[in-house]
Structure formats: C-alpha cells, structure tokens
Amino acid sequence: MKERLEELQQEALAKVEQADSVQGLKDVKVEYLGKKGPITEVLRGMGKLSKEERPVIGQLANDVRESIAQAIETKQTALEDAELEKQLEEESIDVTLPARPVKVGGPHLLTSIVEEIEDLFIGMGFEIKEGPEVETDYYNFEALNLPKGHPARDMQDSFYVTEELLMRTHTSPVQARTMGAKDGSEPVKMICPGKVYRRDTDDATHSHQFTQIEGLLVDKNVRMSDLKGVLNAFAKQMFGADREIRLRPSFFPFTEPSVEMDISCKVCGGKGCSVCKGTGWIEILGGGMVHPNVLEMAGYDPKEYSGFAFGMGPERIAMLKYGVDDIRHFYTNDVRFLEQYHKA
C-alpha cells in the first residue's frame, strides 16, 4: 500500500507539471484528490492493515495528498500569472498616442441668453420671479386691464384648457401675482423669464411656443425717464456701448403711455441697410408706464404709486445678437447649429 501511494504521488506530480491550463489542473485535482480518486480507494483498504501499520499509512496518505495539493496550487499561480502577462501584452496601451476627444455638452443658446439677461438685471437690483405656465383667465387678462370681451384679447390668440384656464400668453401674470402678494404697500422690482404660448403659424420669425422676459418696477415717483435709463443700460450691456436706443409711441392695454424700443442697427451703424430695412433702427421690445387700472387691481393706490413694465423675447435678442435667421433653429435641436454657440 505504501508503494501504491508513492506511485500515485509520482503520477499526480508528473501530470501537474505537464498541465498547461488552469482547467487541466482542475482535472488533475478531481482525478487524484476527488472522492472517487485512487488515493481514496487505497485508504478504504486500511481496514486490512495491522494496528501498527494504520497510522503510518494514514500519515503517508495525508502527506501525499498535501504534496499533490501544494503542487497544484503552485502551478495554478504560475499559470494565472502567465495568462495575465499575456493579456497585458495583448491589451497594452500606447500612452503616447493622442487621446480620443470627449464631447462635453453645454448650455443651449437660449439658456445662455436668458442667464445673461438675468445677470444684467440682477446687477441693477431686480429680483427673478416665476409663475405657472397654465394660468387663470383672471391673471392672464383681467388683472392686466383686459376684461372679458376686450378687443385687445384678440392680439394674443390663446390655447384654452377650460373657460377659465389657459396656457399663459405672456409672463405678465407673474407681475400681477407678485404685486397682489405685496398688498399694495411694498415696492416691486422684478423680472420674470419663462415660456409662453400663442396660437400661431410656425415660420422663420414666429412660433406657437417661445420665451419671454418681462420686467416691472413699482414704487413712489417712478417716471418714464427711469424706464428709458434701465432700457438704455440693458441695450448697451447686451449689444455694445455704441448702441443707441429710441422709444416710439405704441399701445398695450396694461401700460399707459406705451412705447416700442428700437436699437441702432449694428450692421450699418444707423445709416440704413437691408437688415434694418433702410431705417437704421431695429425693433427689440415694448414697454411703458403701468396702467393705473392694473395698479389699482393689485391693491396699489395709483395716486401714490407708479411704475414701469417692459417685455422682450430672448429668441429675438439672440437672433439679433448672433445673426440667427430662423427662430425654429432654437427648437429643432440640430447639433450642427448648437455646436456653433457652444462655449467650452
């Protein structure tokens, strides 16, 4: 039995040495150290041995099993190291090669314009206010001096959800809500950017959904000259210190008097060209003094308080500032267009 164990040990160690894969080692281990292996078969015959021989053969069997297991473990480590080395050689990376460029996203052009405008007005002491896009008829129209049946409602063809709910047609309702929350006793100085909705045919200059930024200042002794000063500072910071502005009489139901503001054409410097249609001026926004009826409905005494309001479209400002010729570019998400205005 001793000779048989030594013979099995030599056979197993020889096969371990010849094994060229981890799977081959597992097969050797199962073959010699498994429950049905030859070493186990030898041990089953120990019952026929004398009491003196049993511990000697038992110790020898354990030594054989341990030597085979140790050899398998050592060989397995060597094979795994070799496989890893081979893998590293095959998958080696040339660190001297230029890296592949990683494209990083950035703010949308409209987002950048809105944030730039917000920064300008925050610098002048204005707060940023927001409101719901699904608005009540009262705040969208009535609180802004547009009672039911008023012909000026036709200027803003609306998306109605119910008879009293609609998609807001401008961000002026935020102004009405903000003034109403002040109970007619505190000044208001705010701008309200956001999306607005009107039933319109989409083309190069119109969209059924667009962005609007409206501003409002209500306090004692507010005059038209204050409005002009704010808009003049805005135009010069947004379009350049050499830009001039002019105010033309206009009509809006919620302001009286009302004005349209033009800026001098940057292409011709005010001399007249095809961009400004020969006038030297380009219309950019509307505004005026807050109508006394609007102040009164918000709880302010028109004899004590006055204010100005204005509204602009970031899309139009972006089109003028960057020469974009179609408003639909802002919403179609063409990567070729967006990449032109991406700031790394």
TrEMBL record:
<dbReference type="GO" id="GO:0000049">
    <property type="term" value="F:tRNA binding"/>
</dbReference>
<keyword id="KW-0460">Magnesium</keyword>
<comment type="similarity">
    <text>Belongs to the class-II aminoacyl-tRNA synthetase family. Phe-tRNA synthetase alpha subunit type 1 subfamily.</text>
</comment>
<dbReference type="GO" id="GO:0016740">
    <property type="term" value="F:transferase activity"/>
</dbReference>
<feature type="domain" description="Aminoacyl-transfer RNA synthetases class-II family profile">
    <location>
        <begin position="109"/>
        <end position="320"/>
    </location>
</feature>
<dbReference type="GO" id="GO:0005524">
    <property type="term" value="F:ATP binding"/>
</dbReference>
<comment type="subunit">
    <text>Tetramer of two alpha and two beta subunits.</text>
</comment>
<dbReference type="InterPro" id="IPR006195">
    <property type="entry name" value="aa-tRNA-synth_II"/>
</dbReference>
<dbReference type="Pfam" id="PF01409">
    <property type="entry name" value="tRNA-synt_2d"/>
</dbReference>
<dbReference type="InterPro" id="IPR022911">
    <property type="entry name" value="Phe_tRNA_ligase_alpha1_bac"/>
</dbReference>
<keyword id="KW-0030">Aminoacyl-tRNA synthetase</keyword>
<dbReference type="GO" id="GO:0140096">
    <property type="term" value="F:catalytic activity, acting on a protein"/>
</dbReference>
<dbReference type="InterPro" id="IPR010978">
    <property type="entry name" value="tRNA-bd_arm"/>
</dbReference>
<keyword id="KW-0963">Cytoplasm</keyword>
<keyword id="KW-0648">Protein biosynthesis</keyword>
<dbReference type="InterPro" id="IPR004529">
    <property type="entry name" value="Phe-tRNA-synth_IIc_asu"/>
</dbReference>
<dbReference type="GO" id="GO:0004826">
    <property type="term" value="F:phenylalanine-tRNA ligase activity"/>
</dbReference>
<dbReference type="GO" id="GO:0000287">
    <property type="term" value="F:magnesium ion binding"/>
</dbReference>
<keyword id="KW-0479">Metal-binding</keyword>
<protein>
    <recommendedName>
        <fullName>Phenylalanine--tRNA ligase alpha subunit</fullName>
        <ecNumber>6.1.1.20</ecNumber>
    </recommendedName>
</protein>
<feature type="coiled-coil region">
    <location>
        <begin position="65"/>
        <end position="92"/>
    </location>
</feature>
<dbReference type="GO" id="GO:0006432">
    <property type="term" value="P:phenylalanyl-tRNA aminoacylation"/>
</dbReference>
<dbReference type="InterPro" id="IPR004188">
    <property type="entry name" value="Phe-tRNA_ligase_II_N"/>
</dbReference>
<dbReference type="GO" id="GO:0005737">
    <property type="term" value="C:cytoplasm"/>
</dbReference>
<dbReference type="Pfam" id="PF02912">
    <property type="entry name" value="Phe_tRNA-synt_N"/>
</dbReference>
<keyword id="KW-0067">ATP-binding</keyword>
<keyword id="KW-0547">Nucleotide-binding</keyword>
<feature type="binding site">
    <location>
        <position position="256"/>
    </location>
    <ligand>
        <name>Mg(2+)</name>
    </ligand>
</feature>
<dbReference type="InterPro" id="IPR045864">
    <property type="entry name" value="aa-tRNA-synth_II/BPL/LPL"/>
</dbReference>
<keyword id="KW-0436">Ligase</keyword>
<dbReference type="InterPro" id="IPR002319">
    <property type="entry name" value="Phenylalanyl-tRNA_Synthase"/>
</dbReference>
<keyword id="KW-0175">Coiled coil</keyword>
